[in-house]
Write a structure and sequence with these properties.
Blueprint (H helix, E strand, L loop, with lengths): L5 E6 L1 H4 L9 H8 L5 E6 L5 H8 L2 H7 L6 E7 L18 H18 L4 E5 L6 H12 L11 H18 L3 E2 L1 H8 L16 H18 L5 E2 L13 E2 L17 H5 L4
Parallel strand pairs: 1-2, 1-3, 3-4, 4-5
Antiparallel strand pairs: 6-7
Helix pairs in contact: 2-9, 3-5, 5-7
């Protein structure tokens, strides 16, 4: 029996929100691209750092939940750093020292590879932090309890993004350096990619989704999907992929006078 391929998105709240319809989440971009070719699974955990996700996937239940596909998993994205890079004094709850962060990423990769041996991997670094928007969010959220101090900064997020890049280079993995690429792409207005100074806005999700698709096309072209050249969509037989065939014939492949012929291979 043909097994449906799986794509797994692993990360913190930025990944958990990647299916948000309000934010046009980057996970929904992948779900659209891979419709009828692969299931996209959201394994984002709000508030998690690499210590906590390692604790979870080191249990049999957690490992099975996060990496359920086994050999049917074709792609995994690993996206951490926004919480790990918290200030050690102002936010010790989330902070993970950068040296341990690097080791944790390697362990996450190893467990993912052990669980899904055929999966391709993409490592994603944390985006920059918008100080002004983060302080405004703090006031709105905590009101009189707001400290006026930044528990996350652009300097710290950059340090951890660079650490993730070092891990990607060591493991020979494609890497998306959001911290750098967002600022390079829009140096005078990179803040538009964030909706509260930390999480992705609609613009940010579109940016990340396009970056992931571009990495797949460049590094793993066999897994890429080309949309219909006429409609630009992935919902008909004119969309193509080298390695991923669609499940069930597309409607335009069915002869209504003899539909059985289109389904004979499934009988």
């Amino acid at each position: 029996m043909k097994v449906f391929p799986k794509i797994i998105l692993v990360g913190d709240s930025i990944t958990q929100l990647s299916f948000s319809p309000q934010l046009y989440g980057f996970g929904s971009k992948l779900t659209d691209t891979y419709q009828r070719r692969a299931d996209v699974l959201n394994r984002g955990f709000s508030g998690y750092n690499t210590d906590w996700i390692l604790q979870y996937i080191s249990t049999s239940e957690g490992k099975e939940h996060v990496f359920p596909g086994g050999e049917s998993t074709i792609l995994i994205t690993i996206f951490f750093g926004a919480n790990d890079s918290s200030d050690p004094i102002l936010n010790p709850r989330h902070h993970v020292p950068v040296e341990r962060f690097e080791k944790n990423l390697k362990k996450i990769y190893s467990i993912a590879k052990e669980s899904c041996p055929k999966a391709k991997m993409i490592l994603i670094g944390a985006p920059p932090v918008d100080h002004e928007a983060r302080l405004e969010y703090q006031i709105q959220r905590y009101k009189e309890k707001a400290t006026g101090k930044l528990e996350r900064t652009i300097e710290l997020s950059g340090k951890y993004a660079n650490a993730a890049q070092r891990v990607a280079e060591e493991l020979n993995l494609p890497f998306i350096h959001l911290w750098k690429e967002m600022q390079d792409d829009s140096p005078n207005n990179w803040q538009k990619y964030l909706n509260d100074g930390l999480h992705l806005s609609e613009y940010g999700n579109k940016f990340v989704g396009e970056k992931i698709i571009a990495i797949i096309e460049k590094e793993y072209p066999e897994l890429s999907v080309n949309p219909c050249p006429f409609t630009g969509q992935y919902a008909n037989s004119s969309s193509k992929s080298i390695a991923l065939s669609a499940f069930a014939p597309f409607h335009d492949q069915i002869d209504h006078t003899n539909p059985e012929e289109a389904f004979c291979s499934e009988l």
